[in-house]
């Protein structure tokens, strides 16, 4: 039986590509995303066409019980979850305080912080009982510095980073590898960056920085680092690392 | 008319003592706390007996509209709020993940993170219109490192720190001084530390570290730093500082 | 006998103004700087004219034994050093790696890092024996992020920050207050910023940001925070704080 | 012609094992260390016996010109240096300030900070001209927090970390990947940890934490992460990551 890699937030960017990488590496990948059944099935088909094994679910992570039930069902019906990719973000673009509704602020927390807490509450006891597991969390610059207009996103990601450290402090010695992957740059991802910017701006951005210029982060290449981190020997685990294009300044330089 | 200092979380520790300091420094202090009418009135009386001016309110910050209405009422009935002391915490002691309920996790966020967001949403537009104001936020070690058992607290405080940076990025240049005061040690405060530890343990702690040993942070002395920060010249504002007893190791050393 | 405040790097900016503030607060201030005898005597005269007490010395901190001998002489001839202001910097402007000579790199370390180590080696045993003392270190953004062109400065200041933490870990519990004051903005200081930029550019900068705009840090106002920190009650000491003009973005935002 | 990987500090721990990994991955590895000709030749023989290619040099990095001349000679005689592993440390164990001589403090800087600056000065122009290269720097917890007794080490490593950020700010966009690898735990390395602790203590430590317990970091496993980082796609480079055994608390938790 293949080990299971559960991806929360499996769009055409980081989530989907990390899913593909783990499938290629011998995992059964369970892909979860909120919408776009066609996109989801495409990912599953791509994986299967490449000789891998995958299942897809539409799942609204905000909904009560949704994450918890999916974890239970996967464990019961597919197999033990060895790796979780927590890839749900809350980036809604820059908004002034006046333009950030209570609802938007709460939504950021529900998706990015509380969702991870619920996931950990569901999956850590199982991983702890087995003495192994990994939870890789896709994070963002906003986890380490609050910038103008990032009220919701920074609060959510900053809370999430501290949650990751707390989980790590409790569970690393139980064999659960928690990794906080700080994505400090723009990802060449139509489902997230593309949607946020709109098709036209996204194409301009790709023309200016993408392609051979390698100025947009390629999710299929990022996936190599996710896979590496999940397979580090337990005598030398990484808890936090950053990723950015060679051509971009690090967050602390701008 | 005296400028107003609004204290959210005015117990017998930091909140009450900072309130007293601002009252002594010429402010009308508005003290808000969730419970203990008698304790609240004692604080008001103490301030008045010392020649100062204060008003007290019982207020459940979790309740919808509670913070927002208090801000409106104070501005309408007492005067412009020049300084906010946001002193609501969410420390519930160390609990394993299994022992941290969804409700406890959410409560931490509601008090420490969302409450500050609501406060800022209510008060920043008024301060911005006047071109001045200060929001001093009492923070904790958990804002910068997640430790075992701190799932709720660290997520809440880490989110709050990033929110403070975001508020600062938008509002400092409008004349609003946001300060994040990292309290990295135990405060000699019966209403918070005392309640968390229980009377007996608290007295043992006081015997071992308090009094002339100065190993517990004296809230009336901490208040001097709050007052100083709120009155720094605007050409040289502090956004973040730490406070701890001389006799304690800094958080990064243990 | 007045307590002594020893200022290393007493120009017309932070050093000189902090010296004045401590003199006004009852200290005998010992001012040390490398050159400009006239400027030094002007500071001494200003302090005396204001009713304070001061002595000035020209001192090349790079020179072997210079700091050590000054500390000994002050203790022997004037009195116990209660506060050290270590204000020697190593900012030489932005230079590419190719334009940063080995000598320039080493000079940064000698002034900013090794000089503080020598000062601490000389003064800490005396402070420890007396059970009290304070060393306030003027630091810079380069201590927490390396930016392009800052090879020498960032290496020196980053090393210094870690040295401050190490000193604090050993000496805080002995009553020695080490504070690392992160100056994250341009100081209205003719002797340092003025010299680095040249008179013309400095005047343009003053016209654009100084005066009533308060966009340049006023050293006489910064001095208030130095004085406050040095006098915090030992139950609540600050080890690190930042200072910047309200109108400037924090380093992490640009 | 094979690309060259130049290892500064090639003992039986991280340096030697990283060298082996790069040799196995197709590099000609140049191993440099200060002493122990026999140990050096053993490493070279091991690599050759495994089908790899290596050269070894005894080199005192402190000595004027030593690093610079080795870089020139390797480029002239062997080939273009694609990867530098800068693995020279300065850990001398915990010493009080009184027990840290000026010489020890300076030695830390010369090995850990100035040595890297000299290496970068020698190799970056060549890498920049070729539009590619990587410098992987082995770092330590002392780079991010100064602990008691770490006066020399923390100052050296803290300066080095800021230097790495400065190098990165100038050279990443030129195709040079600078990575700062924070080793936050004890490495199962007889030449460094073993020598520092002494043979007996080291064996006790191994018995208590090593072997199947995986509580000591295995340098041959750490080498996998070094190799991975050096081969990340340039659209998603890591500048900083930490490594520690699963069974150890992160530095911020103790």
Indicate how many domains the architecture of chain A comprises: 1
Strand order of the largest sheet of chain A: 3-2-1-4-5-6-7
**How does the overall form of chain A come out from the CA principal axes?**
globular
Give a short account of the largest sheet of chain A. Answer: 7 strands, parallel
Mean pLDDT of chain A: 96
The total strand number of chain A stands at: 7
Supply the CATH superfamily name of chain A.
NAD(P)-binding Rossmann-like Domain
Based on CA atoms alone, the radius of gyration of chain A comes out at: 17 Å
Explain what this protein looks like in three dimensions.
Four copies of one chain form a homotetramer. The first copy, chain A, is of the alpha/beta class and about 250 residues long. Chain A has a single domain, classed as NAD(P)-binding Rossmann-like Domain (Rossmann fold, 3-Layer(aba) Sandwich), CATH 3.40.50.720. Helices cover about 45% and strands about 15% of the residues of chain A. The first copy, chain A, has a seven-stranded parallel β-sheet, sandwiched between helices. The termini of chain A are far apart. Chains A and B meet through helix 4 and helix 5 of A and helix 4 and helix 5 of B.
Features:
254 residues; Rossmann fold; globular; homotetramer; alpha/beta; 8 helices; 17% strand
Q: What is the topological layout?
A:
The structure is a homotetramer of 254-residue chains.
Chain A: E1 4-8, H1 14-24, E2 28-33, H2 37-49, E3 53-58, H3 66-77, E4 81-86, H4 102-130, E5 133-140, H5 151-171, E6 176-183, H6 190-197, H7 199-209, H8 219-230, E7 240-243
Parallel strand pairs in A: 1-2, 1-4, 2-3, 4-5, 5-6, 6-7
